[in-house]
Design goal:
Blueprint: H1 8-15, H2 22-26, H3 28-33, H4 40-54, H5 56-62, H6 69-80, H7 87-91, H8 98-111, H9 119-129, E1 162-165, H10 168-172, H11 174-189, E2 194-195, H12 206-211, H13 217-230, E3 235-238, H14 241-250, E4 256-259, H15 260-269, E5 280-284, H16 298-306, E6 310-312, H17 331-334, H18 336-352, E7 357-360, H19 363-375, E8 381-384, H20 385-391
Parallel strand pairs: 1-2, 1-3, 3-4, 5-6, 5-7, 7-8
The structure holds iron/sulfur cluster (SF4) (2 copies).
One iron/sulfur cluster (SF4) binds near residues 26, 29, 85 and 88.
Length: about 400
C-alpha cells in the first residue's frame, strides 16, 4: 500500500479524527452486522496503521511491520463491506471527506492486489460487454418492446433535444425496466423531444469508481459524450442517481444534465404533465447518491406533493439522515447477506410510517427494497418516482 492514493489533505484529516464514534452510530453496515469493525473510525485506525508501516522513517525508528496476508484480507473485507452511503461523512464533526477516502482506499487495495475477487467481474464485464452485467449491449433498449403504445422509432432517434441515459440496472433488470418505461411514457405525454442511445449507451463508469478500478473510466466517458454529441442534444437526463453523479463529477460539463426528479419537477411546474387524482399515502426514501451525494432533496418531494390526492409522510430518518437501502457500494455483490440485513432495517422504518408505498428515485433502491419486501412479504409497495407519476398520468 502506498501513500500516492491519498492527498496531503486526506492524511491530515485522518489525524484530526477525534474518535467521537458518531460515524459508527449512523453506519448502516455496523447496525445491520453489529460489527464495529465496519465503522469509519476503525477503518481510519487501520489505514493509519498500514500507512505508518509503509513509511521508511517509522520502520527504521520503531521497526513497524507490514500487515500479514491474513491482516490484509481482514482489512480489505472490512473496507469493501460498506455501502458508500456517506452517512459517516454527513455527521463527522471535523468534516473528514470520508467518502472520497473510502474510494481512494479501494483504489489502493485493488492496485496492491488486496481485494475481493468479485471485483474482477466488474472489470471483465465492462471491458467485454460495456455494461456491468455482461449482457448483450445491443439489447439495452429492448424494454421498449414491452411498452404499450411505444412509437415506431422505439425512442431511438437520430437527433433529439434531450438524451435519456437509462443506465445498466434499468436497462436489464425486469423490475427496474419499469422505470424507463414509466419515464419514457411521461416524457412522451409531456411533449419532450427525447431519444435513448440504445446500444450506443455504455456504462457510465460509476461501478469502476466504487470498485477501485483505475485506468478504464476515460474510455467510457469519451464514448458516451460522443454518442450524445451525435444526437445533437443539449440535455442529458438520468433516472439513475449514480449515472447522474458521475456525469456531474467526472464528465466535462458539455451538456445540461439533470436527474429525472428535477426534470419532471420542472415539467410539472410548467404545467406540461397531465395529472389526475391519485389517493395514496407514500413515504420517500432519499437515495444516497442523489440526496447526500448531489443534495437533491426538495424536487422529489415537490413532485410527490404536486400529485393531487397523494400524501407524503416522512421516514424517521430522511433527507441528509436517510438510511441506505443496502444497495450501494457494490455491497450486494460482495456480501449479499449484509446488503439484505441493511434492507431489512430500511423496510422496518418504511413500515413504521404506515405508508402504503415507499417511493424512491433510484433503480437500485427499487431493486433492493422490492427484493426484500417480496421475500419477506412486507405489505408495502415499492416504486420509483417516475412510476408514481405514471400512475397519476391522465391519458
Ligand atoms: S465521526 Fe469523524 S471524528 Fe468522529 S470518529 Fe468518525 S471519523 Fe472520527
Ligand atoms: S459510507 Fe456508509 S456504510 Fe460505509 S462506513 Fe460510512 S456510514 Fe458506514
Amino acid at each position: 500500500m502506498s501513500r500516492r492514493d491519498y492527498s496531503i489533505r486526506q492524511i491530515m484529516e485522518m489525524e484530526a479524527c477525534t474518535q467521537c464514534r458518531l460515524c459508527a452510530d449512523v453506519c448502516p453496515a455496523v447496525a445491520a452486522s453489529r460489527d464495529g469493525m465496519l465503522s469509519a473510525l476503525t477503518r481510519i485506525k487501520g489505514l493509519k496503521k498500514v500507512l505508518r508501516s509503509r513509511t521508511g522513517i517509522w520502520q527504521r525508528l520503531f521497526g513497524r511491520k507490514a500487515p500479514t496476508a491474513e491482516e490484509w484480507q481482514q482489512f480489505s473485507s472490512e473496507v469493501f463491506r460498506c455501502t458508500l452511503c456517506a452517512n459517516c461523512q454527513e455527521v463527522c464533526p471535523v468534516g473528514i471527506g470520508l467518502k472520497d477516502l473510502w474510494l481512494a482506499l479501494r483504489r489502493d487495495l485493488v492496485r496492491t492486489g488486496h481485494y475481493p475477487k468479485k471485483i474482477e467481474l466488474i472489470r471483465e464485464n465492462l471491458a467485454e460487454s460495456r455494461n456491468v452485467f455482461a449482457e448483450a449491449n445491443d439489447e439495452r433498449a429492448d424494454w421498449v418492446g414491452d411498452m404499450r403504445g411505444a412509437p415506431e422509432h422505439g425512442y431511438l432517434k437520430e437527433r433529439a433535444e434531450v438524451v435519456y441515459f437509462t443506465g445498466c440496472v434499468a436497462a436489464y433488470f425486469p423490475v427496474a425496466q419499469k422505470i424507463p418505461m414509466a419515464f419514457a411514457e411521461i416524457l412522451d405525454a409531456s411533449g419532450v423531444d427525447f431519444t435513448l442511445l440504445g446500444e450506443d449507451e455504455w456504462c457510465c463508469g460509476f461501478p469502476l469508481l466504487g470498485a477501485g478500478i483505475e485506468g478504464m473510466l476515460e474510455t467510457f466517458v469519451t464514448h458516451n459524450l460522443e454518442a450524445v454529441r451525435r444526437r445533437g442534444a443539449h440535455s442529458v437526463v438520468f433516472s439513475c442517481p449514480s449515472c447522474y453523479q458521475i456525469w456531474r463529477e467526472h464528465y466535462p460539463h458539455e451538456f445540461k444534465i439533470s436527474h429525472a426528479s428535477q426534470f419532471l419537477s420542472h415539467l410539472v411546474r410548467e404545467g406540461r404533465v397531465p395529472l389526475k387524482e391519485l389517493p395514496l399515502t407514500v413515504t420517500y426514501h432519499d437515495p444516497c447518491d442523489l440526496g447526500r451525494g448531489a443534495r437533491v432533496f426538495d424536487e422529489p418531494r415537490e413532485l410527490i406533493r404536486a400529485i393531487p390526492g397523494v400524501t407524503l409522510v416522512e421516514l424517521p430518518h430522511h433527507r441528509e439522515n436517510c438510511q441506505c437501502c443496502g444497495g450501494g457500494g457494490n455491497l450486494e455483490m460482495i456480501d449479499a447477506e449484509l446488503s439484505a440485513a441493511v434492507a431489512a432495517r430500511k423496510m422496518e422504518e418504511v413500515v413504521s410510517t404506515g405508508a402504503q408505498a415507499v417511493v424512491t428515485t433510484c433503480q437500485q433502491c427499487v431493486r433492493t427494497m422490492t427484493t426484500y419486501a417480496k421475500r419477506n412479504k412486507v405489505p408495502v409497495e415499492v416504486m420509483d418516482l417516475t412510476q408514481l407519476v405514471q400512475k397519476a398520468l391522465k391519458r
